[in-house]
Hints:
Strand order of the largest sheet: 2-1-3-5-7
Bound molecules: iron/sulfur cluster
Radius of gyration: 18 Å
Largest sheet: 5 strands, parallel
Helix content: 25-40%
Amino acid sequence: xxxxxxxxxSLAGCFGCHMSLLDIxxxxxxxxxxxxxxxxxxxxxxxxxxxxxxGLIEGGCxxxxxxxxxxxxxxxxxxxxxxxxxxxxxxxxxxxxxxPLKECLEEAYLNGPTVHNPQRTIPNDPELxxxxxxxxxxxxxxxxxxxxxxxxxxxxxxxxxxxxxxxxQPVKLxxxxxxxx
Length: 181
Ligand code: SF4
């Protein structure tokens, strides 16, 4: 029987949440017995090969490509999970939301104290994904089924959530796995 599929993506994130998934240590062997990874940086598969049971999203949306990827995950995955604070709140990248985008770009490319940019240009190649006016949480863009907070969420939290879903159970994690005090 075909195994259920899991897909993962990093949008505006640092890959720390993916590192936490790998931190399940030898349970990764059990995981690959239970599931096939579909589109994911873990197996470097760039495109979906079919419908997935679970999609794990790290990072919020800071550009149009993030939005496109997130919408595709919503279409392709039965259950979509926001993994980590960047996906849930925008996280560190959302610090730029306090400053107008134009000022952010000018500081980064023109006026910052370490900038060397004699041509005084701000990158605008058409191949670059357009930045959004601010960084958005994933649930501001698509419906999200579960939220796993933390920066990053602990490996045990990710493991328990996946095991529950693979057993057709709702994700109800004990307080110990979702407390951050
Ligand atoms: S929540 Fe933390 S670990 Fe995860 S992508 Fe954001 S900064 Fe990285």
